[in-house]
Amino acid sequence: MSLDWIYYAISWILLTWHSAWDAIGVPVGAVIGTNFAWILSIVFLVVTVRVILFPVFVKQIKSQRAMQALQPKVKELQEKHKGDRETLQKEMMELYRKEKANPLMGCLPMFLQIPVFLGLFHVLRRLDPFKAEDKKTIYGWTVDQFNSASHAKLFTAPLAGKFGSTADELARLNANGNTTKIIAGVLVLVMIATTYLTSRQMILKTGWAEDPQQRMIQRLMLYGIPASLLISGAIFPIGVIIYWVTNNLFTLGQQQWVLRKFPPPVTAKKATVPAAARNPVQPAKSGGLFGRGKTTPQAPVKATSPKVAGPKPGAKPANPKKSSRPAKRQG
């Protein structure tokens, strides 16, 4: 199956945004060794894609909430079919079907962005000022646009350059090898860090899944993908890494908004623990950034008079009262 439609779509979005920034007055030439019009075009390619995929992202959160609500039933099935993995999987799939929950929905937004990533990777990899003119004008580009993008840089490192670029590729892009490796290397590290943070934020907010399949997916997202980027990042053009980092930052902000709008459900275990038992001595806090405001003063406790113990049986009172009746005379 040809992916030309993806390359045309990515090229159209990039060129449309580049024309918009040019019309607004963003310098097309390099400023501080950076062609901001092309950088902004890549950033707003992310914005365009994420706006289109926003309804899918909300469905992902709702699906995760549904999976969380099913955790008690999943745990019951795990206890019931402890030694029978095949039956357990069948029972869980039947449970998911009955409750209309999809364990793979959590990965759907990422899967839908893979064609965009591959499209941008292909378009930027083709940037070479020495290509024949008929090769420059495919996917809706003009020769001037192609040449402009081929010479676009980030702090003098070409957007088409990679950490693993050969000396010949760097010479064709008129780039310094050390500078390109430094810029690309820093961006790869930022890409790995932001990829880890997006997965970590979601897991911290929603908790680890009880379902082994879901937990495996969570571990893959948290550790597997960032680790793989350490190697694969060397073949990504700088422009693609800019796209990935921007996408991660957008995801972090979007997760914060969605998690506030659709907060994780409070589990019964957490709800039954009284507040006094969880924090018996800490005074309540009010206001302040990150909850570091002034502590609310405790209400003063009224002093109570000490209780005086009564006299022991058979002991004489400390202050004997005089009897109102005269004592009997002896005799």
How many DSSP-defined strands? 2
Which shape, going by the Cα principal axes? elongated
Low-confidence stretches: 268-299, 320-324
Q: Give the % helix.
A: 55-70%
Structural class: mainly alpha
Radius of gyration over alpha carbons? 34 Å
Listing every helix as H and every strand as E from the N terminus to the C terminus, the arrangement reads HHHHHHHEEHHHHHH
Strand order of the largest sheet: 1-2
Mean pLDDT level: 79
Number of helices: 13
Question: How does this structure look, described?
Answer:
There is one protein chain. By secondary structure, this protein is mainly alpha-helical. It contains 13 helices and two strands. It has helices spanning 4-24, 36-69, 71-80, 85-99, 108-125, 133-136, 143-150, 167-172, 177-206, 212-232, 238-261, 268-271, 275-278, and strands at 153-154, 157-158. A two-stranded antiparallel sheet has the order 1-2. A hairpin with a 2-residue loop joins strand 1 (153-154) and strand 2 (157-158). 24% of the residues are buried. Residues 268-299 and 320-324 have low confidence and may be disordered.
